[in-house]
Amino acid sequence: MNIWTSLAPENLINLAIALPLIGACLVVALRRFPNIREGASITTGIVLFTVVLAITDNTFNQVNMSTQWATILPGLDIAFDVEPLGVVFALVASFLWVITTIYAIGYMRGHNESNQTRFFCCFALAISTVMAICFSSNLLTLFIFYELLTLSTYPLVTHAGTEEAKRGGRVYLGILLTTSIAFLLFAILGTWMATGNLDFTPGGIFTAEQPKELVAILLVLFCYGICKAALMPFHRWLPAAMVAPTPVSALLHAVAVVKAGVFSILKIAIYIFGIDNLKDIATTDIMLYIAAATVLLSSLVAMTKDNLKARLAYSTVSQLSYIIVGALLASSIAAAGATLHIVTHAVGKITLFFCAGAIMVAAHKKNVSELVGIGRKMPITMIAFAIGAMSIIGLPPMAGTWSKWYLIIGALESEKMIIMIVLTISTLLNVAYLLPIPIKAFFYPTEDKPEPWRWDQVKEAPLSSLIAMIVTASLCIVLFFFGQGIIDLINLIPDVSTQIKGQS
């Protein structure tokens, strides 16, 4: 981390955005040398993570970091600055890029996937746009790179080139672009017309001078315009994107796309509307209860899915709305819980998708009903799955325990008992559709009289994939005991720090 201390703070932002672009160029240049190509991807990811660590260190030291790329109109800039919420997301995305790349090497080769150079190149481009989203200093910059993220991930969704993949890609691109143009763009224009300001500002930019009806409408437009958060009924793109290879699913559900969605909603709630002001907006409760309904309904749908990736996809829809609920509860501790859930859900869900991909590569199985007794052949994978599942559920000693705890405390603080009940019921539904999978894998025999277990029965995924899932599964436990650094960073977010202190 110290190697970057000589750089000007604004150059750290530029470097964080540029490094994945450089990595994409290296991937293309080294396409004839797969081992070197993958080595370049991993190296670029590691370097990016050290840059983000340097940015994190500056954030703790209260060093101002900002840079401006261009001025579109007076007061409308493409500009970036660093604030703690963006740093949390950048840490998650940059670290998990390294781990997902390691996993993808084993998966793509073990599954004999074609177009691997295109895959790793688009992956790097997506991470570059994520870094730009993390450090956007205004809504215009956020909108530009939010759209570029959609475009850069489209080739990943359609990677297989089959008719099913193309159809899934059309749904993915159609819903995300349509909602951005129909809702998000108008929300940004409405905000500019009402305030003359698009900058992310502590406490928000709306005041009592703006018409309450307009502010109420803008909140709805933002919530539905940021469709990557998969709020019902505009969630169908996410299950449709499951036609993509599993490393892409991991990118969509844990590293980049969906997290960019809920991060954007949370950032707008804190820096555009203001946590304290949200409770006075007429549509806050409406969107809160729509998010709560999404939590429950998507969990119920997940229980009906036999396809493992589809079950995990609807689980993601549910878990994303936990973060939206936290943003809309208008509570400091709920917003803190939502921020922490970005981290804990990322490590838990990426573990589950890694396991799903490993099962596909090693056992060629896609459905939950086919996994009875598979723990005898893939014990490491199914142990990792059990750990990831328990973290998503929120069972101690797993990382997900803390984020759900803060969300429930935030619901109580806001006197929203129905939200607390929804979160509790959803947790029970998480148990119902996740825990039976490892239980059947380990404790249900595949035969009436199974033979004693032997090591020579084990057939796991390629080593690099195993290493990746072991790292993320371990993080699910480590962050339960040693997550104070993340808590300290969350404490620095304006209007979120006061009540979370002393709770951990």
UniProtKB/TrEMBL annotation:
Domain NADH-Ubiquinone oxidoreductase (complex I) chain 5 N-terminal per the UniProt entry, residue ranges: 76-120
Protein name: Multisubunit sodium/proton antiporter, MrpD subunit (TC 2.A.63.1)
Bilayer topology term: Multi-pass membrane protein
Species of provenance: Thalassotalea agarivorans
Residues annotated as transmembrane: 12-30, 39-56, 85-107, 119-146, 171-193, 214-231, 251-274, 286-303, 323-343, 350-366, 378-396, 417-443, 463-482
Domain NADH:quinone oxidoreductase/Mrp antiporter transmembrane: 136-429
Keywords per UniProt: Cell membrane, Membrane, Transmembrane, Transmembrane helix
InterPro entries: CPA3_Na-H_Antiporter_D, ND/Mrp_TM, Proton_antipo_N
UniProt family annotation: Belongs to the CPA3 antiporters (TC 2.A.63) subunit D family.
Chief location bin: membrane
Pfam families: Proton_antipo_M, Proton_antipo_N
PANTHER family attached to this UniProt entry: NA(+)_H(+) ANTIPORTER SUBUNIT D1, NADH DEHYDROGENASE
Compartments where located: Cell membrane; Membrane
GO cellular component: plasma membrane
